[in-house]
Each structure stands twice: as C-alpha cells, then as structure tokens.
Amino acid sequence: MKKRILKASLALSIFTGGLLNVNMIPSSIQTVEAATIKGTVTATTLNIRSGPSTNYRVVATIKKGATVSITSSKTGWYKITVGTKTGWVSSKYIRKSTSRIASSTVNHMKTLGTSKQLIIVTADNESTRNVVIETFEKYDSGWKKRNTFSGVIGKNGMISSKHEGDYETPEGKYTITTAFGRQVNPGTKLPYRKITADDVWVDDSKSTLYNTWQSASKNNGRWNSAEKMNISLYDYGFVINYNVSRTPGKGSAIFFHIAGSSGYTAGCTATSKTNVISILKWLDPLKKPIIIQTPFNKVTNY
C-alpha cells in the first residue's frame, strides 16, 4: 500500500486540483502580491530598476502620484507595471491600495441567500494566476468589508467548466463546511478534521470514491490515484465544496490552503499561512459562509 500511495503522490504533481511542486515548499511562506493590487508613488521621482536591488540598472523613472500595478514582491521591493513600463521599485515609495470590491457592490448581489460570511476571490481575467481575496460579513446594516489579502490560483487561471488535470481553478459560488490541517485546530468554529499520514483525497475519476477524503489503509485497491494529504501546504485550510455530486472528470480536491513557492496551484486557491489562519478563525458555520471565485468583470453576475 505504501508503494501505491507513492505512485499516487507522483501522479498528483501532474493531475491534482490542489497542489503543485510539493518538494518546493519554502521554510517560510512568501505572499505573492495580486496583479490587481494598485499602488501610488509617494517619492518625487522613483527609479524603476531591472531587478529588486539598487545594484540593478535604472530602466525608467516615474513621478509622484503615478498609479502602478503590483505584480509580485521581494523583500523591500515591488515588481510593478505602469503603462508600458515594467520593473522593480523600492516598496518604501509605494502606498498600496488593495481594496477592489466595495461593500455596496456586495449589498446588491442577488445570490447570497441567507449567508452572512462571504469570501470573494477575483482575478483580472480568466488567464491570470494572481488574485485578490476579500472577506465580507453581513450585519443589520448590510454587508461590510473586513479584510483584503493577495493570493494565487491555478497555473492556467480560472474556468467555468473545469475538468480533472486542467490546472484551472473553478469559477463559481461554493459553500464552506469543513476545515482541515496537520496541526491542531487554530481556533476555527468550522468542523475541523486533523490530517493523518494515512489520509488521501481520491482523484481517480473511475473510482466510486472519486473526490472524497479517505483513509488509504482501509481502501486498498479502490482507486488508481489519490492525493496525499499529509503535506505542509495543508497545515491549515478548508474544503471548497466543488463538484459535490462527484461527477467523473469534473475535478477534485479543490481547497483553500497555504501558498507554496511556485506562484500558482493546480486548481486550488492559496494565500500565506498567516492569512489562512486569520480566515479560519473568522469563519463560522452558523453564518453559512460561502466563497465566490470569479474574474472581476463577472462579480455583478452574483
């Protein structure tokens, strides 16, 4: 059985919806800035350099008040685009503005039902890997913004008609009912399932256990591939209830989890460990939390 699990975990690097490059997990998680996070130049004149240090050559300059898009970050530096210019600038001279969706927009959504907690994951378009993750809560006075985080999704972006192995994150609205992790419950009110070395998520479309969490030792021979759950990216996370009907080939193992170093996932949504824990502590099953994943131009469809 150990050999079977190893074979499945190797297959995972190609076919899973939840993870990519398990051997590239950094000792400390680096948050990847979303491409749609905007910033404003605060210096009178700011040099754009070809790399993230003053040792790199200046490729352009921009003036105070210019609006830039932050596409990635490295300690003390942002990679930005402004017009046709792209390069690195000192983060000391950029004031970030991460808000993307106004509470008023959420208050006009028609599909939220009785939910009182909402996570919205938006990308510039269907092809981008970088996303903005925003959380909202409903009070007597209406929906209010709580936090904005940056994150990453599938290598090939988002898609409304997902299939197994396409490296796409599924667009749509999904419920959130189960949290998980290799570590002890960080304080979430959601039902919390602790991952063991025996736990796998079945991604074999031909198996009757497709898209379910199983104990490997109790189900020998009931699938040809399954994702091993006992990995550090799953120290904390929650299940995105996608393909709950378990339609063969429509995709499996769609989670919200800790981001790795590759800058994308194979279909899940990921952010820093700190952000994941913060969201888990906030989620409350009594408030019927949901997550919407969508290109920004489709937000009003919900």
Please give a handful of descriptors for the protein shown.
302 residues; 5-stranded mixed sheet; 3 helices; disordered N terminus; single chain; mainly beta; 5-stranded antiparallel sheet
Could you tell me how far the N terminus lies from the C terminus, measured between alpha carbons in angstroms?
45 Å
Number of helices: 3
- Kindly estimate the percentage of residues that lie in beta strands according to DSSP: 35-45%
Please report the total strand number as a whole number.
Answer: 22
Q: What is the topology, as strand order, of the major beta sheet?
A: 6-5-4-1-7
**What is the H/E order?**
HEEEEEEEHEEEEEEEEEEEEEEHE
Shape: globular
- Helix amount: under 10%
User: Mean pLDDT, nearest integer?
Assistant: 86
Question: What structural class do you assign from the helix and strand content?
Answer: mainly beta
Rounded Rg: 20 Å
Poorly predicted ranges: 1-36
Largest sheet: 5 strands, antiparallel
